[in-house]
Every structure is written in structure tokens, then in C-alpha cells.
Amino acid sequence: MTTRMRSEIGEQPTALRATLDALLPRVDEVRRLGDQTRQLLFIARGTSDNAAVYGRYLTEARTGRLATLAAPSIATTYRRKLDLDGVLAVALSQSGRTEEIVETLTWAADCGARTVAITNGGPESPLAQAADLALCTEAGEEKAVPATKTYTTALAALAVLALGLGADVEPADLQRVPDAVEKLIHDPGDLDAVVEGLAGKPGVVVSGRGMAFSTALELALKLKEACYMHAMGLSYADLLHGPIAVVDADTPAILVAAGEGPTLPGTIALAERVTGAGAAAYGVGGGTGLAAVSTASLNGPDLPEWVAPLGLIVPGQLLTEALARRLGIDPDAPRGLKKVTQTD
Description:
Number of helices: 16
Largest sheet: 5 strands, parallel
Order of helices and strands: HHHEHEHEHEHEHHHHEHEHEHEHEH
Structural class: alpha/beta
EC number: 2.6.1.16
Number of strands: 10
GO molecular function: carbohydrate derivative binding; glutamine-fructose-6-phosphate transaminase (isomerizing) activity
Oligomer: single chain
CATH superfamily of the largest domain: Glucose-6-phosphate isomerase like protein, domain 1
Strand order of the largest sheet: 2-1-3-4-5
Radius of gyration: 19 Å
Distance between the termini: 38 Å
InterPro entries: GlmS/AgaS_SIS (IPR035466), GlmS/FrlB_SIS (IPR035490), SIS_dom (IPR001347), SIS_dom_sf (IPR046348)
Domain SIS: 29-171, 194-329
CATH architecture of the largest domain: 3-Layer(aba) Sandwich
Strand content: 5-15%
Protein name: Glucosamine--fructose-6-phosphate aminotransferase (Isomerizing)
């Protein structure tokens, strides 16, 4: 029996094409709003917060604008007013109905920010209604609790946002993403080997850096949600500052990297260090260089670094779904979770 999660993973090429068709014509709208601002503030929780990490790296590395992640509790719990003049506040919510995120975006506007919503909830959702500009993704209804297609389409919307903010990238790269994702769905790499390598382990460290850091965080979250693993998502720079001590024969590492870019050599070196210490290192992406020094590896997308995260997460999603089934867990309905989470 095919799980909902697996079916929705397979729907991502179609969802990405529809989202790009809807949002790429709106680059000029983003540009006009962005011209009124100097820096960005990303507002999100959970999976959307991992997407926001990609938005932050992409914005700073490719547009030259300072970008930060918001602490919603400043607005909703401490109720502190800040000077957000010149700020573009970007709120992400798959449903567009998470009250804390809607409230924080409204607070940002009251503090002087211009506002953007990224949501799969449609233009009538509370978040879209609260924003100056709503970039609504076209993932369709997502029934499985672990987010898959709503995550990758949110990344696509962030890539469109970056184009509107003047990113020094090739816009045509985005059009290659759906085909690259489709290829990964059909050929994810050594999936069975990685599943078996993780099946008896209580925990795992998932690490990447730069653009790929968001993928490491999201894969760690998925393994927690759907497989009940103690999965730690870390930048490899932070991992090397101490937590690498937990990597051993019982705690393998999953290392994530684009097939090009300045963080790839460091990821390869980390894989060599992990395996040299007697632990397993499972590569995700990183081309032949990372695969050659990994215990087993999953394929990455044939995409430039700036859009690679849209594909890098896909083999991780497939890994999560397959590992959950291997462990006897229903990945569609993890314990204790709902599709829409409300926080105070």
C-alpha cells in the first residue's frame, strides 16, 4: 500500500511547475515592494522555519541584503514594539492559518515593516489577507502530516522572492527544478542501504552548511516527526565545535551538500573524519566527491547551489517515508502531531 506521504512526494514536480507558473510573473511586484526596504525579517515555525533558513542564506548570499529570523514571542508574548522601518517582513505558513504567525506579521506591519506572505492556504487565508503581497503556492491539498510538497513549493516562492530582490543568479535555473526533482524521485540513490543503516540506530546527526543547512534542519525534523529518531540538525561548523563527540558507531551522520559551491569541500572533509572515527557517514548530494567518501549515499539534484535545496530534500523525504515503514510506523499520521499547529 502506498502511503499518502509517498504519493505527495511524487506530486512535487507538478506542484513546483504550477507554483513557478503562478509566481514567476509576479517578480516585478516583489521588486516594487522590495525597493521600499533595506533588509528582511523571516517569520515562521517548524517546517516553514527551515524554509526561512534557506530564504535567509539566499537573500544574504545573492542579494546582499541583511536577513534575520524573527522570534515571534517578541510580538505575541513579550508584546514589545520594535522599529521595523525599512524592513520587509516575510511570513511563511503552509496553511496560512497559524495564529501566531498571522499575529506576528500584523505586528511587523504595525512596527513599520512592509509585508509578504508565503502560504499554500490561498489568497483568502488569514495570512495572505494580512500581507501587502501574498505569494501563494500551488501545492494542492496536503493530507499527510509531514510536509513535503508544501515545503518544496515554499522554497520555490522564496527563490522567486530573491529574484524580485535582485539576486545575482540565472532565473532560468528555476525552470530546471521540476525535472531535477522528478529524476530524484525515480532514482534517489542507495535508499535501501541508508534505510538499513539507520533502522537500528536511536539517533543521527544531520549536517550541512550554507544553502544546504536548511535541508539538514528539515531532514532532521522529518526523521523526528515520522521515525521518532533523536535527530540533531546542525551546521557542520557548529558540529565541529563540540557536538561531533556524539557521532560514533551508534550515532551515524547524514551529510548534505549541493554538487557545487563553497561548502562542498568542507562537507567531504567531514565525511572523511566521520568514517575515519569508525562511524557511518551517509551522503545526500555532494556529487561524486561526497559519494566516494560516504558509507552509502543518496543522489542530489543536477542544479546550481542557489536552487539545489529544492531538490536536496527529496531523497531525504523518500528516506524518511521508507524508514518509517521499515520501523513499523505510519508516516502519514505521526503520534502527537496535527497538520496545523497553533502556539500561544
